[in-house]
Amino acid sequence: MSTVMPTAEDILAGAETLRWSAGVNFHEQLVEAIYTDAARLTDRAVTRPDSPLRFDFDRTVDKLVTSRWFGFPLMLLMLATVFYITIVGANVPSALISDLLIGIIHPLLKQGSAALGVPFFIDGLLIDGMYLGSAWVVAVMLPPMMIFFPLFTLLEDFGYLPRVAFNLDAIFRKSGAHGKQALTMAMGWGCNAAGVVATRIIDSPRERLIAIITNNFALCNGRWPTQIMIATVFIGVLAPPGWGGLVSALAVVGVAVLGILITFASSFLLSRTVLKGEVSTFSLELPPYRPPRIWQTIYTSIIDRTIIVLWRAVMWALPAGALIWLAGNVNVSGLSIAEHLIQFLNPAGLVLGLNGVILLAYILAIPANEIVIPTVLMLTALSAKMAGVGAGAGVMFDAESDAQLAQLFAAGGWTLLTAVNLMLFSLLHNPCSTTIHTIYKETRSAKWTTVAALMPLLLGFVVTFVVAQLWRLVAAG
Amino acid sequence: MAQALLFILIGAGLLIGVLWAFRPGSGWYWRGKTQVEMTDRVRTEDAVKHVHLSNLRGLQPTLESLAGALQVTGNEAAAVAQSLTQFGLAELRDGQLHLQPRGVEAALHIIRVHRLWEQHLAEGTSVSDGEWHAQADRIEHQLSAQEADKLAAQMGNPLRDPHGDPIPSHAGSLRPQDGLPLSSVAVNQSYRIVHIEDEPVAIFSQIVASGLQPEMELRVLENSARRVRVWADGCEHVLAPLLAASVAVRPVEVQAQEVAQRPLSDLEPGQASRVVSISHACRGLERRRLLDLGLLPGTMVYAELRSPSGDPTAYRIRDTLIALRRTQAQWVRVE
Predict the structure, then answer these.
(1) How far is Cα B79 from Cα B123, in angstroms, rounded to an integer?
(2) CB contacts, 8 Å: B308 with chain A
(3) Which of A53, A192, A344, A383 has the CB geometry, 3.0–4.6 Å to A435, for a possible disulfide?
């Protein structure tokens, strides 16, 4: 053969000609060829059983869980069961961890540092600030997550959760979102940071962004205790004796349902405004049912979800604990920084139907919603100069009884309006820093992270402002 | 009491004012923004584009046609032509505009950015096809050559825009548009649509509404002075000859089959059918997703479950249960 070697230019020109003659659809022909090859290989290598038993089982279960009459009630039952087990089951370990970290280890550390003669400010900053803040987060956060996430993962592993998305897709479609957002929202009730990570299951870019930005409207595990406490102390007492528990439970559920409604409304608005042009595609695989692998599930959900989220939370709680302690203990012209800030924030807080203490607590407790209430209590006791209540300046504490709480709040000048608006603001404010951090990791976009952080906060200001003004209007009229 | 009422009124007033000002499309903020963008540079660039495109179509651009294309008066068009000659982009001979090499270069850059951006909108976003042209008309004045190269590289250096128009290469060469107008082809032959002219917008949107898309194969049933009837995508389409003239086609060897087709969404649970094609109106990620799921010609699809809320429906495709929404299942044509 005496052919001349083609030069690089010749090859490039040849490729160019081929590209133009191949047409636009050659990708499709490629995919088709791949599938034809794959089908040929499987036909040669795979033998199928004659009687598809599992197949029939799947069909029967699918017919039941997606049926017109049983589909939705079954879903509600499952959800209620998961919540019941989580709430009831978390109480005991939560109390145990709290007793250990705060009741036993904290005093031991204090005694130890006193014996060593550690100066007051180092001891306070490290033990009362950083240690106590992180211990609090661990005690409140860890047990529910250790129960909720494995339960959720078991349902996922069994194959039930995709069917939930299948049943609920129509509602989410109308608000421009993906059916799987039902799952990430439910995950958000456990922890928003975990909910944001869970949006990875949504493979359509636009719907995934919607799910990430609106996840904060799912009331997370760190906010349920706030809701329950405020509802018990302020709203439960309005009900006739014996009905208090029910009324306050209804109030908390009402706030959670409001969160769901706001999720739909904001998804609707986002998909039609800022996210209008983003790519959108839907597909949802309904995998075959499998017996859940229990130990593996527990292991992976604890490692992948619980530990990672908890680690991030503790990393944020350490500096926050230090800041809270410093704010309560560094004095400038006779008053602590916290008191200066409270006085500064008070006018704004009152316009929103809240107060300076609450606003400052939400600023200091950006790292974790779990420490909002201990911080509120500490700041209230500090600014009301209540002797004998609490554990000292800058040291977070929990109230011993509802009566003590009521007394503390009365001293802080709280009204029913403050309580209602605190419940609303707890639902509608910026996500905690762990969640913001996670949103940035997932979206890799400063723009969407900012939107996700500021949109709920703005909404919270608007809602509390309107409620406060209307409330005062009605009260005055 | 009065003060609270005042607060609410002021707050509500401010909110409404801000929303009004930023109202998409027609709020004053957006209007002001577009006003600023209509500078002299934009007009000059639009003018070289018009001259070059007219040349490609074998037309002689004049001051009148320029005024028409820029939607300005004759006097303003003359002023634009004057600045073209001043910048050495074009010259006016015998009442006709002729581009200088620099003018050709500028025109090709504008055309390249326009077509690249249309391709980007079609493949990488969910912006609807009616809005592509207007958006690209804005962007074409904003991207530099480097940014255009980056965009092209991201998309794998596409050859054609979504209407089938060739995209000028980075080196600045533009392949001539091939194909015959649909209004001039023979009856009972099969063709593939290679290009749909996107200007004027009124005609383009009528063609889009009729369901014809580039790359679609069709068979001509009737071609008269009154109407053009074609069989494509499983049903009959009727076009006015004026519309058909904007559709360019190329003959294909394989005859398009006149099989009755219906959308996959017509399948009731319990029914099964065989895939014929995925509609060409379905593009980008959406199309690749359907292909990845294995919805290829010849694949059997069984409709199995319908959600209790009526939509989506789960289909068994290649031993996998996949739920698709009605709007997506409509893209897939089955026997």
Answers:
(1) 39
(2) 66-68, 71-72, 167
(3) A192
Is A166's CB within 8 Å of B314's CB?
yes
Q: Which of A169, A173, A473 sits opposite B4 (nearest CB)?
A: A473
Backbone angles phi and psi of B97, in degrees to 5: -90, 130
Cβ-nearest to B126 among A279, A286, A470: A279
Question: How far B90 CA lies from chain A's nearest CA (Å)?
Answer: 31
Judging contacts by C-beta atoms under 8 Å, the chain B residues touching residue A66 are 305-308, 314
Helix segments in B125-159, DSSP class H: 129-139, 145-154
| Residue B292 to residue A31, Cβ atoms within 8 A | yes
CB distance B232 to B165 below 8 Å: no
Query: Counting beta carbons within 10 angstroms of the beta carbon of residue B322, is it exposed (0 to 12), middle (13 to 18) or buried (19 or more)?
Result: buried
pTM, to two decimals: 0.80
Show residues of chain B in contact with A470, CB under 8 Å.
4, 8
Contact B305 A62 (CB under 8 A): yes
Question: How many Cβ atoms are within 10 Å of A177's Cβ, its own excluded?
Answer: 30
Whether B126 and A277 lie within 8 Å, measured CB to CB: yes
CA-CA distance, A206 to A212, in Å (whole number)?
A: 10
Nearest to B1 among A28, A288, A477 (CB): A477
pLDDT in tens, chain A (477 residues): 456 788 888 888 888 788 777 766 677 778 888 888 888 898 888 887 665 555 678 888 888 888 888 888 998 898 888 888 887 888 888 889 888 988 888 889 888 888 888 888 888 888 888 888 888 888 887 888 888 888 888 888 888 999 999 999 999 999 989 999 999 998 898 889 889 988 998 888 889 999 999 999 999 888 888 898 889 888 888 888 888 888 888 899 899 999 999 999 999 999 888 888 777 788 888 988 888 888 888 888 887 778 877 887 888 888 888 888 888 888 888 888 888 999 999 999 999 999 999 999 999 888 888 888 888 888 888 887 766 666 677 777 777 778 888 888 888 889 999 999 999 999 999 999 889 999 999 999 999 999 999 999 999 999 999 999 999 888 876
**Cβ neighbours of residue A193 under 8 Å, at least 6 residues apart?**
A309, A312, A313, A432, A434, A435, A437, A438
- Cβ of A170 within 8 Å of Cβ of B175? The answer is no
Q: List C-alpha distances in Å: B324 to A170, A253, B55, B63.
A: 11, 33, 47, 53
Specify which residues A257 forms β-bridges with. none
**Closest by Cβ to A31, choosing from B125, B291, B323:** B291
Helix locations, B94-233, DSSP H: 101-124, 129-139, 145-154, 201-210
Q: Which of B4, B15, B306 sits opposite A472 (nearest CB)?
A: B4
Domains and CATH numbers, chain B: 28-99 (1.10.10.10), 180-251 (2.30.30.90), 262-334 (2.30.30.90)
Q: Which residue has the tokens 């609450």?
A: A358
Mutation site, B296, B313, B327, interface A, largest A CB count within 10 A: B296
